[in-house]
Design a protein that fits this description.
Largest sheet: none
Protein name: DUF3618 domain-containing protein
InterPro entries: DUF3618
Number of strands: 0
Radius of gyration: 36 Å
Helix content: over 70%
Structural class: mainly alpha
Organism: Kineosporia mesophila
Number of helices: 3
Pfam families: DUF3618 (PF12277)
Keywords: Membrane, Transmembrane, Transmembrane helix
């Protein structure tokens, strides 16, 4: 209901203001919902990080137990080898040299195997720990990107 000069009436202006307020409220609601998604994603990332940390601790604990078992086993093998070497040395000098060398080789192999298995277990724990550190920054970056994209699309559409 414009007059002849192209001016709008007060009712038209109020109606435009009410319409603009409604659009602004819808925009605020949409932005709030997007922010909530970011919060949920962050919470999920924390849950995943906690789960990974727990798993890494479990694997590390299991690796320590296994390493201790293997060290004990290596100690037992080494002790057995020493006893066998002493008995063989008193029985036959030549045979005792061969038996002693075999026993020391077995003890060395057991020690090498125990060390390798402990190293492999330790690497598995470290790998578990290394696999997840990127998760939180990646989720945060994705959330920031999506928020920027939504804002840009919203501005572009108006």
């Amino acid at each position: 209901m414009s007059d002849e000069n192209g001016s709008r009436s007060a009712d038209e202006i109020r109606e435009d203001i009410d319409h603009t307020r409604d659009e602004l409220a819808n925009t605020v609601e949409a932005l709030t919902a997007r922010a909530d998604v970011k919060t949920r994603a962050t919470e999920k990332a924390h849950q995943v990080q906690d789960t990974a940390r727990t798993k890494a601790q479990e694997v590390q604990g299991a690796a320590r137990v296994k390493a201790q078992e293997l060290k004990a086993k290596a100690g037992e093998v080494q002790q057995t080898a020493k006893v066998q070497a002493v008995a063989a040395k008193t029985a036959v000098t030549e045979q005792s040299k061969v038996t002693g060398e075999q026993a020391r080789a077995k003890a060395g192999q057991a020690r090498v195997i125990a060390t390798e298995k402990a190293h492999v277990a330790q690497e598995a724990v470290q790998q578990q720990h290394r696999e997840r550190p990127w998760l939180i920054p990646a989720v945060g970056g994705a959330a920031a990107f999506l928020t920027g994209l939504f804002v840009w699309l919203r501005r572009r559409g108006n």
